[in-house]
Amino acid sequence: MGEIVDTSRAFFEEVVQPILERDIPDIAGQAACGMFGYGSECYGMDDQVSRDHHFGLRVDMLLPDELHQSRAKEITETVSKQLPQSFRGFDLREGHVAGAGLAPESLDAFLGRTIGLTRAPETHVEWLAMPEEDIVHVTNGEVWYDPSGTFTRIRDTLSYYPEPVWLRRISHWCRYFSGMGVYALNRALIRKNYQYASITFARSIKWAIELAFMLNKTYFPYDKWLDAFFRRLSTLADRMVPLIDEAVDIGTGWDRKLEILEQLSDILDERMVEIGVISPHPRFTGNETSGYRLLEHAYADIVKQLPDDVRNVVPQWDQVYLEEFHTTYVEELPIEDWDHLLNLTPVDS
After folding, report:
1. What torsion do the CA atoms of 21, 25, 29, 33 make, to the nearest 10 degrees?
2. C-alpha gyration radius of the chain
3. What is the pLDDT of residues 225-264, one digit of tens each?
Protein backbone atom coordinates (compact mmCIF):
# COMPACT_ATOMS: atom_id res chain seq x y z
CA MET A 1 0.00 0.00 0.00
CA GLY A 2 2.83 2.38 0.80
CA GLU A 3 6.17 2.72 2.52
CA ILE A 4 4.77 3.67 5.93
CA VAL A 5 2.36 0.70 5.87
CA ASP A 6 5.10 -1.75 4.92
CA THR A 7 7.48 -0.32 7.52
CA SER A 8 4.80 -0.36 10.20
CA ARG A 9 4.07 -4.00 9.41
CA ALA A 10 7.76 -4.87 9.69
CA PHE A 11 7.90 -2.96 12.98
CA PHE A 12 4.96 -4.96 14.28
CA GLU A 13 6.24 -8.35 13.14
CA GLU A 14 9.86 -7.81 14.20
CA VAL A 15 9.41 -5.79 17.39
CA VAL A 16 5.87 -5.56 18.77
CA GLN A 17 4.46 -9.02 18.06
CA PRO A 18 7.30 -10.88 19.85
CA ILE A 19 6.77 -8.70 22.95
CA LEU A 20 3.03 -9.34 22.96
CA GLU A 21 3.33 -13.09 22.51
CA ARG A 22 6.12 -13.46 25.06
CA ASP A 23 5.00 -11.09 27.83
CA ILE A 24 1.21 -10.87 27.55
CA PRO A 25 0.12 -13.88 25.46
CA ASP A 26 -3.43 -13.90 26.85
CA ILE A 27 -3.93 -10.40 25.45
CA ALA A 28 -2.17 -11.19 22.19
CA GLY A 29 -4.61 -14.03 21.55
CA GLN A 30 -7.57 -11.66 21.66
CA ALA A 31 -6.05 -8.73 19.75
CA ALA A 32 -6.36 -7.68 16.13
CA CYS A 33 -3.44 -5.62 14.85
CA GLY A 34 -2.73 -3.84 11.60
CA MET A 35 -3.14 -0.45 9.99
CA PHE A 36 -6.73 0.53 9.26
CA GLY A 37 -9.27 3.22 10.03
CA TYR A 38 -8.57 6.91 9.60
CA GLY A 39 -5.66 8.54 7.81
CA SER A 40 -4.39 8.84 4.26
CA GLU A 41 -1.93 5.99 4.77
CA CYS A 42 -4.80 3.53 5.30
CA TYR A 43 -5.82 4.22 1.70
CA GLY A 44 -2.26 4.12 0.39
CA MET A 45 -2.67 7.83 -0.37
CA ASP A 46 -0.28 9.56 2.03
CA ASP A 47 1.94 12.25 0.55
CA GLN A 48 4.02 15.18 1.78
CA VAL A 49 0.91 17.27 2.42
CA SER A 50 -0.78 14.63 4.57
CA ARG A 51 2.32 14.10 6.70
CA ASP A 52 1.97 17.32 8.68
CA HIS A 53 -0.04 15.58 11.43
CA HIS A 54 -0.47 12.09 12.91
CA PHE A 55 2.16 10.59 10.65
CA GLY A 56 4.69 7.96 11.61
CA LEU A 57 4.95 4.29 12.47
CA ARG A 58 1.52 3.00 13.31
CA VAL A 59 0.14 -0.22 14.71
CA ASP A 60 -3.60 -0.18 15.41
CA MET A 61 -4.71 -2.72 18.00
CA LEU A 62 -8.34 -3.67 18.68
CA LEU A 63 -9.34 -5.52 21.85
CA PRO A 64 -12.55 -6.74 23.47
CA ASP A 65 -14.02 -3.81 25.37
CA GLU A 66 -13.60 -5.24 28.88
CA LEU A 67 -10.00 -6.22 28.18
CA HIS A 68 -9.21 -2.77 26.85
CA GLN A 69 -10.74 -1.07 29.87
CA SER A 70 -8.89 -3.23 32.37
CA ARG A 71 -5.49 -3.67 30.73
CA ALA A 72 -4.81 -0.98 28.12
CA LYS A 73 -2.30 0.77 30.39
CA GLU A 74 -0.49 -2.51 31.04
CA ILE A 75 -0.24 -3.18 27.31
CA THR A 76 1.18 0.25 26.57
CA GLU A 77 3.71 0.09 29.39
CA THR A 78 4.80 -3.47 28.58
CA VAL A 79 5.48 -2.66 24.96
CA SER A 80 6.81 0.90 25.18
CA LYS A 81 9.57 0.14 27.69
CA GLN A 82 11.09 -2.42 25.31
CA LEU A 83 11.08 -0.35 22.14
CA PRO A 84 14.09 1.07 20.33
CA GLN A 85 14.37 4.83 19.87
CA SER A 86 13.75 4.46 16.16
CA PHE A 87 12.96 1.85 13.54
CA ARG A 88 14.19 2.07 9.95
CA GLY A 89 14.62 5.81 10.21
CA PHE A 90 11.33 6.57 11.95
CA ASP A 91 11.54 8.13 15.41
CA LEU A 92 9.24 6.24 17.77
CA ARG A 93 8.84 9.28 20.00
CA GLU A 94 6.93 11.11 17.29
CA GLY A 95 4.01 10.39 15.02
CA HIS A 96 0.89 8.37 15.47
CA VAL A 97 2.03 5.90 18.14
CA ALA A 98 3.48 8.61 20.43
CA GLY A 99 6.25 6.40 21.78
CA ALA A 100 4.03 3.48 22.78
CA GLY A 101 4.66 1.45 19.64
CA LEU A 102 0.99 0.76 19.13
CA ALA A 103 -2.44 2.27 19.73
CA PRO A 104 -4.71 -0.09 21.73
CA GLU A 105 -8.42 0.56 21.40
CA SER A 106 -11.70 -1.11 22.22
CA LEU A 107 -13.20 -2.93 19.24
CA ASP A 108 -16.64 -1.79 20.41
CA ALA A 109 -15.53 1.84 20.51
CA PHE A 110 -13.89 1.66 17.08
CA LEU A 111 -16.99 0.14 15.48
CA GLY A 112 -19.26 2.52 17.37
CA ARG A 113 -17.62 5.64 15.98
CA THR A 114 -17.50 4.27 12.43
CA ILE A 115 -20.60 2.17 11.71
CA GLY A 116 -22.62 2.93 14.85
CA LEU A 117 -22.72 -0.70 15.99
CA THR A 118 -20.53 -2.93 18.16
CA ARG A 119 -20.77 -5.87 15.74
CA ALA A 120 -21.48 -6.54 12.11
CA PRO A 121 -24.92 -5.44 10.86
CA GLU A 122 -27.63 -8.09 11.05
CA THR A 123 -30.59 -6.42 9.32
CA HIS A 124 -31.08 -4.33 6.20
CA VAL A 125 -32.12 -1.39 8.37
CA GLU A 126 -28.83 -1.59 10.27
CA TRP A 127 -26.95 -1.67 6.98
CA LEU A 128 -28.77 1.46 5.80
CA ALA A 129 -27.91 3.30 9.02
CA MET A 130 -24.16 3.08 8.34
CA PRO A 131 -22.38 5.95 6.53
CA GLU A 132 -20.63 4.47 3.50
CA GLU A 133 -17.39 6.40 3.91
CA ASP A 134 -17.14 5.07 7.46
CA ILE A 135 -17.71 1.47 6.43
CA VAL A 136 -14.52 2.02 4.44
CA HIS A 137 -12.73 2.93 7.67
CA VAL A 138 -13.45 -0.59 8.91
CA THR A 139 -12.58 -2.41 5.69
CA ASN A 140 -9.57 -0.37 4.49
CA GLY A 141 -5.89 -0.87 5.22
CA GLU A 142 -4.43 -4.17 6.34
CA VAL A 143 -4.90 -6.59 9.23
CA TRP A 144 -1.65 -8.41 10.01
CA TYR A 145 -2.60 -10.33 13.11
CA ASP A 146 -5.98 -11.59 14.33
CA PRO A 147 -5.70 -14.95 16.12
CA SER A 148 -9.35 -14.97 17.21
CA GLY A 149 -10.58 -13.90 13.77
CA THR A 150 -13.21 -11.61 15.29
CA PHE A 151 -12.27 -8.42 13.47
CA THR A 152 -11.52 -10.26 10.24
CA ARG A 153 -15.01 -11.78 10.24
CA ILE A 154 -16.56 -8.34 10.69
CA ARG A 155 -14.50 -6.99 7.79
CA ASP A 156 -15.56 -9.95 5.66
CA THR A 157 -19.24 -9.34 6.47
CA LEU A 158 -18.81 -5.71 5.45
CA SER A 159 -17.21 -6.60 2.11
CA TYR A 160 -20.24 -5.13 0.32
CA TYR A 161 -23.96 -4.45 0.70
CA PRO A 162 -26.73 -7.05 0.51
CA GLU A 163 -28.63 -6.47 -2.73
CA PRO A 164 -31.77 -4.81 -1.24
CA VAL A 165 -29.55 -2.33 0.61
CA TRP A 166 -27.50 -1.69 -2.52
CA LEU A 167 -30.64 -0.99 -4.54
CA ARG A 168 -32.12 1.29 -1.86
CA ARG A 169 -28.96 3.36 -1.79
CA ILE A 170 -28.84 3.62 -5.58
CA SER A 171 -32.47 4.76 -5.63
CA HIS A 172 -31.81 7.47 -3.05
CA TRP A 173 -28.79 8.81 -4.90
CA CYS A 174 -30.75 8.80 -8.19
CA ARG A 175 -33.46 10.86 -6.52
CA TYR A 176 -30.99 13.41 -5.21
CA PHE A 177 -28.79 13.63 -8.30
CA SER A 178 -31.84 14.24 -10.47
CA GLY A 179 -34.25 16.12 -8.20
CA MET A 180 -31.79 18.08 -6.06
CA GLY A 181 -29.18 18.22 -8.80
CA VAL A 182 -30.16 18.43 -12.47
CA TYR A 183 -33.64 19.83 -11.79
CA ALA A 184 -32.42 22.24 -9.12
CA LEU A 185 -29.52 23.52 -11.22
CA ASN A 186 -31.80 24.13 -14.19
CA ARG A 187 -34.19 26.19 -12.03
CA ALA A 188 -31.32 28.10 -10.42
CA LEU A 189 -29.97 29.09 -13.83
CA ILE A 190 -33.40 30.19 -15.05
CA ARG A 191 -33.59 32.48 -12.01
CA LYS A 192 -29.91 33.52 -12.32
CA ASN A 193 -29.38 32.33 -8.75
CA TYR A 194 -25.69 31.54 -9.14
CA GLN A 195 -25.01 31.01 -5.47
CA TYR A 196 -27.51 28.15 -5.35
CA ALA A 197 -26.36 26.98 -8.77
CA SER A 198 -22.82 26.61 -7.40
CA ILE A 199 -24.03 24.62 -4.41
CA THR A 200 -26.24 22.23 -6.33
CA PHE A 201 -23.73 21.76 -9.14
CA ALA A 202 -20.97 20.71 -6.73
CA ARG A 203 -23.30 18.32 -4.93
CA SER A 204 -24.43 16.85 -8.25
CA ILE A 205 -20.87 16.05 -9.29
CA LYS A 206 -20.32 14.32 -5.95
CA TRP A 207 -23.55 12.31 -6.26
CA ALA A 208 -22.75 11.28 -9.83
CA ILE A 209 -19.33 10.00 -8.79
CA GLU A 210 -20.80 8.16 -5.80
CA LEU A 211 -23.38 6.53 -8.06
CA ALA A 212 -20.54 5.31 -10.26
CA PHE A 213 -18.99 3.63 -7.21
CA MET A 214 -22.32 1.99 -6.37
CA LEU A 215 -22.75 0.69 -9.90
CA ASN A 216 -19.27 -0.84 -9.60
CA LYS A 217 -20.26 -2.39 -6.25
CA THR A 218 -17.37 -0.57 -4.63
CA TYR A 219 -17.59 1.55 -1.48
CA PHE A 220 -16.85 5.20 -2.07
CA PRO A 221 -14.33 6.86 0.28
CA TYR A 222 -14.33 10.13 2.17
CA ASP A 223 -14.80 13.12 -0.18
CA LYS A 224 -11.11 14.00 -0.28
CA TRP A 225 -10.26 10.73 -2.01
CA LEU A 226 -13.32 10.43 -4.27
CA ASP A 227 -11.56 11.64 -7.39
CA ALA A 228 -8.44 9.50 -7.00
CA PHE A 229 -10.38 6.27 -6.51
CA PHE A 230 -13.09 7.21 -9.03
CA ARG A 231 -10.49 7.27 -11.79
CA ARG A 232 -9.60 3.65 -10.95
CA LEU A 233 -13.12 2.22 -11.32
CA SER A 234 -13.30 -0.61 -13.82
CA THR A 235 -16.50 0.65 -15.45
CA LEU A 236 -18.00 4.11 -16.03
CA ALA A 237 -14.84 6.06 -15.20
CA ASP A 238 -13.63 5.95 -18.80
CA ARG A 239 -16.79 7.73 -19.96
CA MET A 240 -17.42 9.95 -16.95
CA VAL A 241 -13.96 11.28 -16.10
CA PRO A 242 -13.54 13.46 -19.24
CA LEU A 243 -16.99 14.94 -18.74
CA ILE A 244 -16.47 15.67 -15.06
CA ASP A 245 -13.04 17.16 -15.69
CA GLU A 246 -14.64 19.49 -18.22
CA ALA A 247 -17.58 20.28 -15.95
CA VAL A 248 -15.44 21.40 -13.01
CA ASP A 249 -13.04 23.42 -15.15
CA ILE A 250 -13.32 27.08 -14.18
CA GLY A 251 -13.71 28.07 -17.82
CA THR A 252 -16.77 25.89 -18.45
CA GLY A 253 -19.97 27.93 -18.64
CA TRP A 254 -23.17 27.18 -16.77
CA ASP A 255 -25.13 25.96 -19.78
CA ARG A 256 -22.42 23.44 -20.59
CA LYS A 257 -22.21 22.34 -16.94
CA LEU A 258 -25.93 21.55 -17.01
CA GLU A 259 -25.57 19.76 -20.33
CA ILE A 260 -22.81 17.59 -18.85
CA LEU A 261 -25.02 16.61 -15.91
CA GLU A 262 -27.63 15.52 -18.44
CA GLN A 263 -25.02 13.46 -20.29
CA LEU A 264 -23.97 11.87 -17.01
CA SER A 265 -27.62 11.02 -16.41
CA ASP A 266 -27.70 9.09 -19.68
CA ILE A 267 -24.46 7.25 -18.90
CA LEU A 268 -25.60 6.20 -15.43
CA ASP A 269 -29.05 5.24 -16.70
CA GLU A 270 -27.59 3.11 -19.49
CA ARG A 271 -25.41 1.28 -17.00
CA MET A 272 -28.36 0.58 -14.71
CA VAL A 273 -30.29 -0.92 -17.61
CA GLU A 274 -27.25 -2.91 -18.70
CA ILE A 275 -26.76 -4.60 -15.31
CA GLY A 276 -30.46 -5.08 -14.62
CA VAL A 277 -30.94 -2.51 -11.88
CA ILE A 278 -33.79 -0.97 -13.88
CA SER A 279 -35.89 -2.17 -16.80
CA PRO A 280 -35.28 -1.07 -20.40
CA HIS A 281 -37.32 2.01 -21.25
CA PRO A 282 -37.94 4.42 -24.13
CA ARG A 283 -35.72 7.44 -24.59
CA PHE A 284 -37.00 10.57 -22.89
CA THR A 285 -36.64 14.28 -23.40
CA GLY A 286 -36.78 16.82 -20.64
CA ASN A 287 -38.67 20.03 -20.13
CA GLU A 288 -37.47 23.62 -20.39
CA THR A 289 -38.33 24.49 -16.79
CA SER A 290 -37.93 21.07 -15.13
CA GLY A 291 -34.83 19.94 -16.97
CA TYR A 292 -33.91 16.34 -17.70
CA ARG A 293 -35.09 14.35 -14.68
CA LEU A 294 -34.12 10.97 -16.11
CA LEU A 295 -32.70 9.41 -12.97
CA GLU A 296 -35.93 10.04 -11.11
CA HIS A 297 -37.47 7.56 -13.54
CA ALA A 298 -34.77 5.13 -12.37
CA TYR A 299 -35.54 6.05 -8.76
CA ALA A 300 -39.20 5.08 -9.19
CA ASP A 301 -38.36 1.88 -11.05
CA ILE A 302 -36.06 0.75 -8.22
CA VAL A 303 -38.40 1.80 -5.41
CA LYS A 304 -41.16 -0.35 -6.88
CA GLN A 305 -38.84 -3.39 -6.66
CA LEU A 306 -37.74 -2.91 -3.07
CA PRO A 307 -38.80 -5.19 -0.21
CA ASP A 308 -40.95 -3.67 2.52
CA ASP A 309 -38.17 -3.58 5.11
CA VAL A 310 -36.06 -1.09 3.14
CA ARG A 311 -38.45 0.81 0.88
CA ASN A 312 -39.17 3.67 3.28
CA VAL A 313 -35.82 3.69 5.09
CA VAL A 314 -33.69 6.71 4.23
CA PRO A 315 -30.00 5.75 3.97
CA GLN A 316 -27.55 7.44 6.30
CA TRP A 317 -25.03 9.59 4.51
CA ASP A 318 -23.55 11.80 7.19
CA GLN A 319 -20.68 10.74 9.43
CA VAL A 320 -22.87 11.03 12.50
CA TYR A 321 -21.09 8.45 14.65
CA LEU A 322 -17.67 9.93 14.00
CA GLU A 323 -18.96 13.40 14.87
CA GLU A 324 -20.47 12.13 18.13
CA PHE A 325 -17.07 10.71 19.04
CA HIS A 326 -15.19 13.77 17.84
CA THR A 327 -17.25 16.18 19.91
CA THR A 328 -16.46 14.25 23.08
CA TYR A 329 -12.78 13.97 22.14
CA VAL A 330 -12.41 17.71 21.55
CA GLU A 331 -14.39 18.64 24.66
CA GLU A 332 -11.99 16.62 26.84
CA LEU A 333 -8.78 17.90 25.20
CA PRO A 334 -7.02 21.04 26.49
CA ILE A 335 -7.54 23.70 23.86
CA GLU A 336 -3.78 24.28 23.60
CA ASP A 337 -3.34 20.62 22.61
CA TRP A 338 -6.15 20.95 20.09
CA ASP A 339 -4.52 24.04 18.57
CA HIS A 340 -1.25 22.09 18.29
CA LEU A 341 -3.02 19.29 16.42
CA LEU A 342 -4.45 21.93 14.08
CA ASN A 343 -0.94 23.31 13.48
CA LEU A 344 -2.08 26.69 14.82
CA THR A 345 0.73 28.81 16.25
CA PRO A 346 -0.14 31.73 18.54
CA VAL A 347 1.05 35.10 17.27
CA ASP A 348 2.24 37.64 19.83
CA SER A 349 -0.16 40.56 19.98
Report:
1. -40
2. 23
3. 999 999 999 999 999 999 999 999 999 999 999 999 999 9
